[in-house]
Design a protein that fits this description.
Layout lengths: L8 E7 L4 E4 L4 E10 L3 E6 L2 E2 L7 E6 L2 E6 L9 E8 L6 E10 L7 E7 L5 E8 L5 E7 L1
Parallel strand pairs: 2-9
Antiparallel strand pairs: 1-3, 3-7, 4-5, 4-8, 6-7, 8-9, 10-11, 11-12
Length: 144
């Protein structure tokens, strides 16, 4: 009986997916890279269930030792979830790395504006910088 001289290594995830936050209707993407011998097969799960490559808004782009999960037109309450990259190659146990997709409403974009506030001293103007989301304010004092 002849034995294979190839050394086999269990899968190892070397680039883990990262948490993503997108605006409702936006595009989200997760990346995952693994190594092992033989080359691991990568798949994706959403909340523990396998992501179907036939889904019209979920696109799985497999490449050697790497996979991309792209979610088009992300929907709050539907797509915000925990996503897992699963790597397996038949040697040892499958390994999993997870990330979370958060979706915020389209109208909650953080906007900044500057408002001039006149002071009693005409040689100084105070400008107020405010973020509309939290309405926290910062003051800039400029000499004119």
């Amino acid at each position: 009986m002849q034995q294979s001289s190839a050394v086999k290594h269990p899968p190892e995830i070397v680039e883990r997916p990262k948490d993503v936050a997108v605006r409702s209707g936006g595009i989200a993407a997760f990346y995952c890279r693994a190594r092992g011998e033989p080359t691991p097969q990568l798949s994706w799960r959403k909340n523990g269930r396998k992501v179907s490559p036939q889904s019209p808004r979920y696109l799985v782009i497999p490449q050697p030792s790497m996979s991309v999960l792209r979610i088009d037109s992300a929907k709050a309450g539907k797509d915000d979830a925990k996503y897992e990259c699963v790597a397996e190659n038949g040697v040892g146990d499958a390994v999993v790395a997870s990330a979370t997709l958060s979706i915020y409403p389209a109208h909650s974009q953080s906007r900044c504006f500057i408002r001039a506030v006149w002071t009693s001293d005409e040689s100084r103007r105070r400008f107020q910088l405010a973020r509309s989301k939290k309405m926290s304010t910062h003051f800039l004092h400029l000499l004119v």
